[in-house]
Design goal:
alpha/beta; 3-stranded parallel β-sheet; two-stranded antiparallel ribbon; 8 helices; 14% strand
Length: 184
């Protein structure tokens, strides 16, 4: 989803994830109406995960504790079984497991937030502004990871201001302006 600030991009993601009420229309996933379904059910039953804009980490907790919180609905055994596969995706984070999340750089915090969502092995990943506040090299890493996930079958709906980079990796692009679709 592309568009200027205030176009409604983040609102779309929050509405899809059940954080905002649908004003008009309906939301369908795999032919089923999921309009009005809460975030917990969307996550546990339908496989949707949401990575909001910014980092939204528990700064005083360690990297590993933030990961564990991401998998709290899985149970600790399953969560701990999956953590190594997520750490393999983010080698820089692996070295900082016992550091406070707030001590990580922005380039380390965003992958931690993405990894927390991936712990749930979502079918659909909603991600808001993955490049915001990151260096160009880290942005490339994050976009490459998102492309790999998409290629392996995870549907990704991304809101992004970096149009050039987003268009390079996207299968489809939708532009919004003042809450209306202006280009697909």
């Amino acid at each position: 989803l592309l568009g200027p600030n205030g176009a409604g991009k983040s609102t779309v993601l929050k509405t899809l994830f059940g954080l905002l009420k649908v004003q008009r229309g309906s939301i369908h996933l795999d032919g089923r109406d999921i309009t009005g379904t809460g975030a917990k059910v969307l996550l546990s039953t339908h496989g949707l995960a949401f990575v909001p804009q910014g980092r939204k980490l528990f700064g005083q907790l360690s990297v590993i504790e933030n990961r564990e919180l991401g998998g709290i609905t899985l149970g600790m055994k399953t969560c701990h079984e999956r953590i190594p596969e997520i750490l393999a995706l983010f080698p820089r984070i692996k070295e900082r497991l016992h550091s406070a999340a707030s001590s990580l750089s922005g380039g380390e915090q965003k992958p931690l937030a993405v990894g927390r969502a991936l712990l749930l092995r979502p079918r659909v990943l909603l991600i808001d502004e993955p490049s915001i506040g990151l260096s160009p090299l880290v942005v490339q890493d994050v976009f490459r990871l998102l492309r790999r996930l998409a290629d392996s079958g995870t549907t990704i709906l991304m809101v992004e201001q970096n149009v050039k980079s987003a268009l390079k990796m996207a299968d489809e692009a939708i532009a919004l302006e003042s809450g209306r679709l202006v280009l697909h």
